[in-house]
Specification:
Layout (H helix, E strand, L loop, with lengths): L2 E2 L13 E2 L10 E4 L4 E4 L5 E3 L9 E3 H11 L8 E3 L6 E3 L4 E5 L6 E4 L11 E2 L6 H13 L6 H6 L7 E36 L2 E31 L6 H6 L9 E2 L9 E3 L5 H24 L3 E30 L2 E8 L5 E3 L5 H32 L2 H10 L13
Parallel strand pairs: 1-6, 11-16, 12-15
Antiparallel strand pairs: 2-10, 3-4, 4-5, 6-16, 7-8, 9-10, 9-15, 11-14, 12-13, 12-16, 16-17, 17-18
Length: 408
């Protein structure tokens, strides 16, 4: 993607500005209508089309962005108190959010993220599934959990209401060249005399034994990384946000505040430089695979990697999640639903009773298998002696026969 210049920060912190979206028909509050490009009035139901900017989603230069980050860290914090543009009430919005509802009149308020953080979102994915669809996905997920307490599956109907939240992400692009040193291992075979037991006797036999010939190697590999996605929230564990991938980033739209109306939206809590550190770890895993293939052979040893990045750029995105929490036996569990495709991930309790019963059942199955195997071995012993078996069958109907004669 084309690369854009990063604007230099202002000399002093700015106060937040707030936006609301009134209905042109009744003056009521407009909220984004999921699955469309419209705002819908929560009072009269009138639709208002969102004007999507005809702008290209561009990458920002990472070195310049890091320089801007260093400068703005010296400027201090902006004020946190907001003024509702509808009722003029002043209220405090959590510092991790930049959109929400006024607690006095319920108006959806969106603040300009560029005035409370160094970088504004450049693009977003709008919500594609509504609350009912998200809750159905969650209910299906929780009911399919193995070893979950039985009451938990009924609890899915009693879960707290889902909240739609836009979660911040970074994407990173980079051209990489990696110099490496290591060893290539090639397997070859040699003939060797070994001692083995055959028919109760030790004998000498010739065997082909594998060995590895190691050769020192060095070289370079190159790879371009595009849109390495890194979650920029600390509200949710990284393992949960990572699991919700992949996202359909090809459907990104330019950032437009109207899509946030009626939803919460977080500002990033993972800074640009910290995010790139995570991205480098992701890239390094791919680079190690590339180097392994470049070394070749049957086995590989990597001694040193030295990666240089160039043409490195980034974007700041907002991606949609439905999120909620439920309490079970005094403990809170969180879960999230991908707002685009319904993929669900979360925390869940385990039933100790079910796990114990499963262990007992598994032990019983193993025990039955052992007994069956042993019984099969005994049967095989009898079948292997057909004369004895036939003699017993011929004589067992003789009423004067001693039934124990053949066994003593």
């Amino acid at each position: 993607m084309p690369e854009a210049e990063v604007q230099a920060p202002a000399d002093a912190p700015k106060a937040r500005t707030e936006s609301r979206f009134p209905c042109s028909n009744c003056g009521g509050n407009l909220a984004y209508e999921i699955g469309t490009d419209d705002l819908k009035c929560t009072y009269c139901g009138r639709h208002h089309e969102i004007e999507i900017p005809d702008t290209e989603i561009r990458e920002l230069n990472l070195p310049k962005g890091l320089n801007q980050l260093e400068q703005t860290r010296k400027l201090g914090k902006t004020e946190k108190l907001l003024k509702c543009p509808n009722c003029a009430a002043r209220f405090d919005l959590d510092e991790s959010l930049h959109s929400g509802d006024c607690p006095f009149c319920g108006t959806s308020v969106v603040t300009s993220t560029g005035e409370i953080q160094e970088f504004s979102p450049q693009a977003l994915l709008p919500f594609a599934i509504d609350r009912d669809e998200a809750f159905a996905a969650y209910s299906k997920w929780i009911k399919s959990r193995w070893f979950a307490p039985s009451k938990l599956k009924n609890h899915a109907r009693e879960s707290e209401s889902l909240k739609g939240v836009y979660i911040p992400y970074w994407t990173y692009d980079s051209d990489t060249v990696t110099a490496y040193t290591g060893q290539r291992g090639d397997v070859y075979y040699v003939r060797k005399m070994v001692t083995v037991m055959e028919n109760g006797r030790y004998v000498r036999r010739s065997r082909m034994v594998p060995k590895i010939r190691w050769t020192s190697v060095s070289g370079k590999t190159a790879r371009h990384f595009d849109d390495v996605l890194i979650g920029a929230t600390k509200t949710l564990p990284r393992k949960i946000t990572d699991w919700l991938e992949p996202w359909d980033l090809e459907n990104l739209v330019p950032y437009t505040e109207e899509y946030l109306s009626g939803f919460q939206s977080e500002v990033y809590q993972v800074a640009l430089d910290e995010g790139f550190t995570h991205a480098e770890r992701v890239m390094q895993q791919v680079i190690r695979r590339d180097v392994t293939q470049a070394i070749g052979g049957d086995q590989q040893r990597i001694h040193r990697l030295n990666t240089n990045h160039s043409d490195t750029s980034f974007k700041h995105l907002l991606l949609p999640l439905w999120t909620a929490a439920f309490s079970f036996k005094g403990k809170t569990y969180r879960f999230v639903v991908n707002g685009r495709n319904g993929k669900t991930r979360g925390e869940r309790p385990y039933s100790i009773v079910k796990i114990t019963l499963a262990g007992i059942a598994a032990a019983a199955v193993v025990g039955t298998a052992i007994v069956t195997f042993q019984s099969g071995a005994v049967s095989g012993y009898v079948v292997d002696r057909p004369i004895f078996y036939d003699q017993y069958n011929r004589q067992r109907n003789d009423p004067f026969r001693d039934p124990f004669r053949d066994f003593f």
